[in-house]
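User: What would this chain look like folded?
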Amino acid sequence: MAKANSKSKKTKMPVEGILTVNASTQPQATIARDTKESDERERKYRAKSALEDIERAEEHKRDKALMKDVKACARDKMKAYGKL
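Assistant: Here's the prediction, encoded as structure tokens.
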């Protein structure tokens, strides 16, 4: 009986080398334009969101009962923080 070789060779898997990432097929100008448009959309979205936040804060300020509750909640939190 032939003795099995105790040192096994590392075999290359058939998918190795296939999964390498090649350079982008998109021209650089297209990538830059896409990035610029994406940045502009993000900036407009953030501005719109900030405006909505300000509008909501103004609505809260006009609601006297809500502001009374908010101030009471704030006092309670300050007392809790003072105990730390």
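The chain has a mean pLDDT of 80. If you want, I can go into more detail on any region.
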